[in-house]
Amino acid sequence: MTQANAEATSNQSTPGEALQVTRAENGVVTLTLNRPGVKNAITGSMWEPLRQIFQEIRETESDRVLVITGAGGEFCAGADLGEGDKVAAHPLNSMHDVNAAALALHTLPKPTLAKVRGHAVGAGMNLALGCDLIVAEENARFSEIFARRALSVDFGGTWLLPRLVGMHKAKELALLGDILSAREAAELGLVNRVLSEDELDPFVKDWADRLAGGPPLALQMTKRMLLNSSSLSFSEALDAEAWAQTVNFGSQDTLEGVKAFMEKRPPQFRGR
After folding, report:
1. What is the reported pTM?
2. CA distance 166 to 172
3. What is the pLDDT of residues 179-196, one digit of tens each?
4. Which pLDDT score is estimated for 89?
5. What is the pLDDT of residues 129-139, one digit of tens each?
6. Which CB contacts under 8 angstroms, 24+ apart, belong to 194-198?
């Protein structure tokens, strides 16, 4: 996918301008939602390019970790209900694009990290929750705001919330649409870390760099097993662990890890 560098601050920005992708040499990919004039709300025409970005990262071997963030001190205000590029298709057809993007993020085997400033509401909250890790600035706000707009929860929120906070708390968040502070979200287990403005960027960079330097095969299999764990018996989980370790012990990365430990140096993992 062509990477666009143009600034977009109006409702009329194109998908390419509104979704900016940058790549660091160590394999850290940063996806920035770039519609700060509307708190990075996502238009109907952006869902398919978003899916394509997730798919491209999945297929690009040199991409090790994905960081999702937003421009202008905001994360994402969800779907743009006042968008200029109204979708002519039936709403169910439009939801197919939303669902495809959510599924592409959920099934992305590589580690994902949400860096949240400002508002993460509606689909924006579930975009963050769909990541493996969430680091929030102390001014961040989270809300499953759908009910306030006479809408039902989407972008995977009905699956994610009960698993993260339990069914009754999930119902509270979804049915009332209350706004949570970053600290409240962290207390519920929705957020991994809450940091000051000055701390956020270096902390996320450290985590992203550590993930990018980790063993790709082992991390991907661990992520898959954790995601599948709720649908497995304990015995089935043990079988999955045995399969994963068998793959690891046959990999060059495990040999490199042992060799680096013996030689007292940092390992150089290559995903092989």
Report:
1. 0.89
2. 10
3. 999 999 999 999 999 999
4. 55
5. 999 999 999 99
6. 194/136, 194/137, 194/138, 194/140, 195/135, 195/136, 195/137, 195/138, 196/137, 196/138, 197/117, 197/137, 197/138, 197/139
* Shared-domain flag, residues 171 and 252: no
Tokens, residue 179: 């706004």
What pLDDT is attached to residue 129? 98
Pairing of strands 141-143, 180-181: antiparallel
Q: What is the DSSP letter of 39?
A: T
The residue annotated as part of the active site, out of 61, 74, 144, 236, is 144
Same domain, 247 and 123: no
Tell me which residue range forms the domain holding 144. Answer: 15-212
Digit-coded pLDDT (tens) for 157-175: 999 999 999 999 999 999 9
**198 phi/psi in degrees, rounded to 5:** -70, -25
Co-location of 133 and 237 in the same domain:
no
Annotated catalytic, 263? no
Q: Is residue 2 part of a domain?
A: no
Please state, in angstroms and rounded to a whole number, the distance separating the CA atoms of residues 58 and 55: 5
Q: Where are the beta strands (DSSP E) in the chain?
A: 19-23, 28-33, 65-70, 112-116, 119-121, 133-137, 141-143, 180-181, 193-195
CA angle 222, 217, 155 (to 5 degrees): 55
